[in-house]
Amino acid sequence: MKYVIAVLAKISLFSRPSLFMTTALQSPSRRNRRRLQEVSLLEGPMLLLKSIRGFSSNRSLMWLACVPMAFIGLGVFNLSAHATDVSLSVQGLADNLWVMVAAVLVIFMNAGFAMVEAGMCRQKNAVNILAKNLIVFTLAVSAYWLIGYKLMYAADWAIPGVLKIGGPFFDPAVTSSDGLVPSIDFLFQAAFAGTAATIVSGVVAERIKFGEFVVFSLILTAIIYPIAGSWQWNFPDEAGIGGGWLARLGFIDFAGSTIVHSVGAWAGLVGAIALGPRIGKFVNGEAQALPGHNMAIATLGALILWIGWYGFNGGSVLAFNEQVPYVAVTTTLGAAGGGIAATFLSQLNTGKPDLTMTINGILAGLVSVTAGCDGFTMWGAWVVGAIGGLLVVWSVSFVDGLQIDDPVGAVSVHGTCGVWGTLAVGLFNTSSGLFITGKFDQLFIQLVGSFSYAIFTIVTCWIAWTIIGACFGGIRVTEEEETIGLDIGEHGMEAYPDFASSN
Description:
Blueprint: H1 2-14, H2 23-26, H3 43-50, H4 58-62, H5 66-81, H6 90-120, H7 126-152, E1 156-159, E2 163-165, H8 182-203, H9 210-233, H10 245-249, H11 257-275, E3 282-283, E4 286-287, H12 295-314, H13 323-350, H14 355-370, H15 378-401, H16 410-428, H17 434-437, H18 441-472, H19 479-484, H20 486-491
Antiparallel strand pairs: 1-2, 3-4
């Protein structure tokens, strides 16, 4: 051992050129040497690392890039090595990991919704919109954990196919089955519940009381949405026993065009009708433009939503298999078709392409393909998305014509296109669609499901909004608060305190 150490010591001596070089060779002149205090912010970290022994070359610095990858690789290896400890196969591990990632992507969609809504509304209400979108997910998770999940899944049928009743709180044991770990399934479903509530925020923006919106969000995510979801996403067993009544009927809503998007839109529509339009929105029966204050933020929000949709639709496979990339492609094509069609139609209508319509067209395409993204052909997905893009432009004008104030067009994007996407399954589905099989059966079932969800949501939400208004003295802010902006009236702060605003 001593011999080995001695040899290594001699090698190290010869590997250090500084011992055999003159002073002139071993150090640069003081004129060329740069101190850490003198370099730029970008150059500083590199200079600091180069001062450390072993990192004197750029090649050595490249090894730093391998550090995160090494940790990731080690983590994956460790999970794989211990998969048998929790009775999970490699496929089971991959399934759970993918659904976990998908849940995070869906949660990240809240940032997209916040940015789209804030950007398309006026500056004086930006804080209020951001606050609602931020708090709504905390409320959704809490309410869904307390009551909602058991109403939707983990309870016995009180009314078969219609209503589940169970005790409070979702508190699963970590199981070792080869299916989804219950906690991961809960997280994914809770993210969906939060999306439904977030849609409402955009429809009622710029005139609703913050506290009353909070109360309604709790009711929606704890009771209304879970009951609606239980009708479809509780599937019968192999013998056809159990499950929700729409699932037994054969209704198809793969990732929630109706269950999530239309339910959220109908809930918001009822709230918008109860609130009435914003001050100055309609003058002599004509809709007036109240433009958003930051289209850059709105555009970035749309892109974030597009990315999050891969978790929304792809995660709904509830496994990691060959279907996931296919769903991702149909989702992409739907968004592309919607954006192109909406931009084209807005160009025809106004003579200029409208960015807000491009944004809403992309979102409309995404909503439209959500119900059937697993069963559309690729050309079918593009066509469904494109029709959704055309419908959203028409629907925005139609809703304005009814003198219903929807500041961000959420009723059109999520409601109109949610219904269209659900009906499109009955037309374009590769196994049961009218255009493929020539049979009307699936289209009729889709009509029944869409109509049932619309009636249920409108009735229950009207009751909820009415009770909230009666208990709290109305759901709308005062005229003075609306005029100065909800940022000051409701929160006592401004989104951009260093910039003056006229609206």
